[in-house]
Design a protein that fits this description.
The complex is a heterodimer. By secondary structure, chain A is mostly beta strands. Chain A is 0% helix and 52% strand. In chain A, a hairpin with a 2-residue loop joins strand 3 and strand 4. Chain A starts with a strand and ends with a strand. By secondary structure, chain B is an alpha/beta fold. Chain B folds into three domains: 193 residues, FAD/NAD(P)-binding domain (3-Layer(bba) Sandwich); 115 residues, 3-Layer(bba) Sandwich (FAD/NAD(P)-binding domain); 80 residues, Enolase-like, domain 1. In chain B, helix 1 packs parallel to helix 8. Chain B is globular. The relative contact order of chain B is 0.13. The chains are: A mainly beta, B alpha/beta. At the A-B interface, loops of A face helix 8 and helix 11 of B.
Chain lengths: 104, 457
């Protein structure tokens, strides 16, 4: 089954930035971009590096370790060395509250 | 005709060239010649995780004994086969015939090429000292080197590292994490003189001191003494001998230019290339540690020994070879590939479409590198050691030293636990790419966000 789970409020994430959010045994990256709020897996698909120290450039997240890039909205891997897409998760806003849909 | 591409050097850069050629649709033969038995792999972990057995920059997250040797493999033998890359392992290339466009392997096997890529890397500079031939005097460049050093590390072992550069200090940190007693000897007056400003280097020295690693500067080793084939001490100039079970020498590499020299290519601290990796021979390219590439942004050549440079030059060279193929109206490109340029040959003839994003040394060549030591990650961009003024920013446990020269920002070095320095250093790299030089007082003020300064706010 799927659940909507409360993450944080919109003020908790700076514009063009991201935060780390841990839930259960998983960790996520929650983004505030010019195109809205989004969520992906927390770890880069290249090596076990969390994206929280990475940089958001427009709609792109760049990993802090090797500067591999992903499209935040689609999770698509954009440039070497990353070649496996990031898993994305639906986000909804209720007022200023951000919710994420995760399975299980 | 571009039917045959030969790549000499099956390391990170050579492997990536082959991969990018296929990704961009090249369907001819690719021969990838490596003198090692290992499939192409990435080197950064050899001095870090491979020796410490922990993922250093993630020490807080990942426990020890979690390092997987296969994690550094760039292209596995299966992947090479899938990409139809003819990987010739364990063979040395002994000569190049630039007239006939052939490379000659040991055993006198000859391979014709339409384009040749030299990704020959570098070799550790050897110390010409008495006793340096003993097996416990080691160098670190290859996966086998790392395995050999790893097998010698154990709690209480006395390890002497010669050379306080990035590799030497990473080995020192790794050995210390394994419980060794570690001393680093540096012949110069300070560590990391080539890559870092003195302020950052002092912070790293302090980090080593806190972990019990002694870094001694202005100390020259003169010979290595052993008994019964077993190293036991390092003799020093004007100082007491130093007991040692193991010596690891990290005093830099020399670019492997012998083949380029034989081929008559232009050489100057590495194989000279234009801004796209082309050497003085129109069918021969060079990339990675061995290449001294002209950079239009800085209007001078430089040779970089970094992971990022291997990645970037591999992509640039593959792209330029593909461009060459297009301009020669060749047809060995697979239009079904993601990076294929055209749907059919006719379109190719009249309107070749450039790749989605052109990579060039001009656009991407502000240097960037990282080093991991203990639980700290260092990242640098630009030329942080070349400043005439250093501005320091302290933001909690994140330290950034900005280098200015003639009043202009030219580089920065960031040091922090884990990957916390990455974002700000990336922002500085973007400032350098865009020619933005914020006020020193703003950079020194941690309340001023670098992202805002990048945007001129």
């Amino acid at each position: 089954m799927t659940n909507w789970i409360h993450v944080c409020t919109t003020d908790d994430i700076d514009e063009e930035d991201l935060i780390r959010w841990d839930h259960g045994d998983k960790t996520y990256a929650i983004y505030n971009t010019e195109a809205g709020f989004f969520a992906t897996d927390g770890y880069c698909t290249h090596e076990q590096q969390h994206l929280e120290d990475g940089i958001v450039i427009g709609k792109v997240i760049e990993c802090p370790l090797h500067q591999g890039r992903f499209d935040i909205q689609s999770g698509k891997a954009l440039s070497a060395p990353v070649c496996v897409d990031l898993t994305t998760y639906p986000i909804k806003l209720e007022g200023e509250e951000i919710f994420i849909q995760v399975t299980g | 005709m571009y039917k045959r591409i030969v790549i000499i050097g099956a390391g990170h850069c050579g492997g990536r060239v082959a991969e990018h050629l296929r990704k961009r649709g090249f369907r001819g033969s690719i021969s990838l010649i490596g003198c090692e038995r290992h499939a192409p792999y990435e080197r950064p972990s050899l001095s870090k995780g491979a020796l410490s057995k922990a993922a250093l920059s993630k020490a807080a997250l990942v426990s020890e004994d979690s390092w997987d040797p296969e994690s550094i493999t760039l292209l596995s033998p299966d992947k090479l086969a899938e990409l139809e890359i003819d990987w010739i392992a364990g063979r040395n290339c002994i000569d190049i015939d630039p007239e006939q466009q052939e490379v000659i392997l040991d055993g006198n096997k000859r391979l014709r090429f339409d384009a040749l890529v030299l990704a020959t890397g570098g070799s550790p500079i050897k110390l010409p000292l008495a006793g340096a031939g003993q097996p416990q005097v080691m160098y670190l460049r290859t996966r086998n080197d790392a395995t050999a050093i790893d097998s010698q590390l154990a709690p209480g072992k006395k390890v002497v590292v010669i050379g306080a550069g990035f590799i030497g200090l990473e080995v020192a940190a790794s050995a210390r994490m394994r419980g060794c007693e570690v001393t680093v000897l540096e012949a110069g007056s300070r560590p990391l003189a080539r890559g870092l400003p003195v302020q950052t280097a002092e912070a790293i020295s302090e980090l080593h001191a806190q972990h019990g690693v002694e870094i001694r500067t202005n100390v020259a080793a003169t010979s290595f003494e052993g008994t019964n084939g077993r190293l036991n001490r390092v003799m020093l100039l004007d100082e007491e001998p130093l007991p040692a079970d193991l010596v690891v020498v990290g005093v830099g590499i020399r670019p492997n230019t012998e083949l380029a020299h034989k081929a008559g290519l232009s050489i100057q601290d590495g194989i000279s290339t234009d801004a796209f990796g082309r050497t003085s021979h129109p069918a021969i390219w060079a990339a990675g540690d061995c290449a001294n590439a002209h950079n239009s942004r800085y209007n001078r050549p430089f040779r970089l020994e970094s992971w990022k440079n291997a990645e970037l030059m591999a992509e640039v060279v593959a792209q330029e070879i593909i461009k060459d193929i297009i301009s020669n109206l060749e047809i060995h490109l697979d239009s079904s590939q993601q990076y294929g340029f055209f749907n059919d040959q006719k379109e190719q003839l009249k309107d070749p479409e450039p790749a989605k994003e052109t990579v060039s040394l001009e656009n991407n060549a502000v240097p960037w590198l990282w080093s991991d030591q203990f639980e700290y990650g260092l990242q640098t961009t630009g030329f942080p050691a070349d400043g005439d003024e250093i501005i320091t920013r302290i933001d909690g446990d994140l330290r950034i030293d900005f280098a200015f020269r003639d009043g202009k920002l030219i580089g920065a070095a960031g040091l922090a636990p884990g990957a916390k320095a990455a974002r700000d250093i990336r922002l500085v790299q973007m400032m350098l790419e865009q020619g933005i030089s914020p006020e020193p007082k703003d950079l020194a003020n941690p309340a001023k966000k670098l992202k805002a300064l990048l945007k001129g706010k």
